[in-house]
From TrEMBL:
Protein name: MFS transporter superfamily
Membrane topology designation: Multi-pass membrane protein
Annotated GO CC locations: plant-type vacuole membrane
Record field: transmembrane: 83-103, 110-129, 149-169, 190-209, 221-241, 316-335, 355-377, 398-418, 481-502, 526-546
Pfam families associated with the record: PTR2 (PF00854)
Compartment annotation: Membrane
Main location: membrane
CDD domains linked: MFS_NPF5
Keywords tagged on the record: Membrane, Phosphoprotein, Transmembrane, Transmembrane helix, Transport
GO molecular function: dipeptide transmembrane transporter activity; low-affinity nitrate transmembrane transporter activity; tripeptide transmembrane transporter activity
Signal peptide range in chain numbering: none
Family designation: Belongs to the major facilitator superfamily. Proton-dependent oligopeptide transporter (POT/PTR) (TC 2.A.17) family.
InterPro entries, alphabetized: NRT1/PTR (IPR044739), POT_fam (IPR000109)
Length: 555
């Protein structure tokens, strides 16, 4: 927030261009005209585009590498992909805590980017290790143990780096906007929309380029390109260092270091339990007048804890029902790089007699849908909704999340119907016992589910991002974004668990598993119907909780 100061010589009042509670990279007060806002977040957004090019260059086609280069079964490969994606999306909880506690976002970005680049370099090396069975179809027995060990070490080193890099870079970019300044505060409301737009450009590009290189040229080259892209991401981030604002609440050199947020919040719950016999009248005098009225049982903790810590705990606890309801969306989100891709690999993907579209490239339609719909949402939908609801963002973040979950239900229904048609086509052409045969059904049938999936992302993913960032205290912003990312992480873990349980349950007594290696005998359609039903329940619950949710600030 800008203030005014008096000129000592003339006595006139002149505006102070310093940004409160913010310093530059040299530890001096940040100057509004030369730092922060879009001029700084532009560097972080470009860095995130390059980072997402690297990450999705690995993630988009990983299931193909598991089944073809490492010779794993479809169910095992899908579980391994989900576990890795889940780890990468869950680690932000740990890194966010580290950044908020003592390391700071900037230093965490530098540290984790080094892990990230080392992992990508090691992954590239693993892809150069030759198979033991040249000229034959790859089987697990043909893969050298060294190749497997190096590959998994590299994969989880990437997850370790990516988990910290993305959560801190995203929060650091949002920190460049001063919430106390009306102009910058309004710009910040569009930041997450345009960040997701920029990210989608990186994802679309890598799905067009890297997936093609991996399947048609070389896996080693296909992994080396993301490694170079991550190096570019770090360079672009450092390029903007002279324009960045560092919050003195933990980022600047003059800022104080915080306790671990998990420790602070845990301390409140322990104190509330210890003081549970105290009456409300014993604590009301210790609470500030603006204390929230929700979760009053935590007010007893004020006897042992600071009132601000009690409010922090209340803010985080109020997010738990929304977080739990959103986990089903995390499970649905895990399907596009796994079963959607394997589904497409069995269908007619030919553009010409010599050119086949890699199945993973179909994920480009998710990115294209996002790129087309975000400007429509930001420039058309929001102004119209704003004129009706009188809300700055048009609709509340929870209404936005609910809409996205509803669209994900329709996407799963369409996916199930298309899979039923694919199975029927395979049966009509006598291909049920031919797992390697191409089902004479155009892969374009999958495009609607991908597009709807992308539109759902615009509502749900951006909404979750904005909600969890905005509804926690400023000191816990990294942790807030980590909670959002953990939805995808836990969703992937749950997806892996569901696949393993269903695989075991449906393959008993000689039955064909829902996830059989021969997808012409499998039943992915049953799995999609199950996810549609679970998403419907999640939608009902999140609408219920949204009605009673009290925002920390007007939305």
């Amino acid at each position: 927030m800008s203030t005014s100061i008096a000129d000592n010589e003339t006595g006139t009042i002149i505006p102070n261009d310093n940004v409160e509670y913010s310093v530059d990279f040299q530890g001096k007060p940040s100057i509004r005209s030369s730092s922060g806002a879009w001029k700084s977040s532009g560097f972080t957004m470009c860095a995130e585009v390059a980072e997402k090019f690297a990450y999705f260059g690995i993630a988009s086609n990983l299931i193909t590498y598991f089944t073809e280069a490492l010779g794993e079964s479809t169910a095992v490969a899908a579980s391994n992909v989900n576990l890795w994606l889940g780890t990468a999306a869950f680690l932000p909880l740990i890194w966010g805590s580290i950044a908020d506690s003592f390391l700071g976002r900037f230093r965490t970005i530098l540290l984790t980017s080094s892990f990230y680049i080392m992992g990508l370099g090691l992954l590239t090396f693993s892809a150069t290790i030759p198979s033991l069975c040249k000229g034959q179809e790859t089987h697990e027995s043909c893969v050298p143990q060294l190749k497997v060990i190096v590959f998994f070490c590299a994969l989880y080193l990437i997850a370790l780096g990516e988990g910290g890099f993305k959560v801190c870079l995203r929060a650091f970019g949002a920190d460049q906007f001063d919430e106390q300044d009306p102009k910058e505060s309004k710009a910040k409301s569009s930041y997450f929309n345009w960040l997701y737009f920029a990210i989608s450009i990186g994802i679309l590009t890598t799905r067009l380029i890297t997936n093609y290189v991996q399947e048609n040229l070389s896996w080693a080259l296909g992994y080396a390109i993301p490694c170079l892209s991550m190096m570019l991401a770090l360079f672009l981030f450092l390029l903007g260092i002279k324009t960045y604002r560092f919050s003195t609440g933990g980022e600047g050199r003059q800022g104080r270091k915080h306790d671990n947020p998990f420790v602070r919040i845990g301390r409140v719950f322990v104190a509330a339990a210890i003081n549970r016999r105290q009456t409300p009248s014993d604590t009301c005098l210790l609470l500030p007048t603006e204390s929230s009225k929700k979760f009053r049982f935590l007010d007893r903790a004020v006897i042992s804890c600071d009132s601000s810590e009690v409010e922090e705990a209340k803010a985080v606890l109020s997010l738990v029902p929304i977080w739990l309801c959103s986990l089903v969306f995390g499970i649905v989100y895990a399907q596009s790089p796994t079963f959607f891709t394997k589904q497409g690999s069995t269908m007619d993907r030919s553009i010409s007699s010599t050119l086949l579209v890699p199945a993973a490239t179909l994920q480009c339609f998710i990115s294209l849908a996002i790129l087309v719909f975000i400007p429509i949402y930001d420039r058309v939908f929001v102004p119209i909704a704003r004129s009706i609801t009188r809300k700055p963002a048009g609709i509340t973040t929870l209404q936005r999340i609910s809409t996205g979950i509803f669209l994900s239900i329709i996407s799963m229904v369409i996916a199930a119907l298309v899979e039923m048609k694919r199975l029927k086509t395979a049966q009509n052409h006598g291909l049920v016992d031919s797992p390697k045969a191409t089902v004479p059904m155009s892969v374009c049938w999958l495009i609607p589910q991908y597009i709807l999936f992308g539109v759902s992302d615009v509502f749900t993913m951006v909404g979750l991002q904005e909600f969890f960032y905005g509804q926690v205290p400023p000191e816990l912003r990294s942790m807030g974004l980590a909670l959002y990312l953990s939805i995808i992480g836990i969703g992937n873990f749950l997806s892996s668990f569901m696949v393993s349980v269903i695989e075991e349950a449906t393959s008993q007594s000689g039955q064909v598993s829902w996830f059989s290696n021969n997808l012409n005998q499998a039943h992915l359609d049953y799995f999609y119907w199950l996810l549609a039903c679970l998403s419907s329940l999640a939608f009902i619950f999140i609408v219920y909780f949204a009605k009673s949710y009290v925002y920390n600030s007007p939305k």
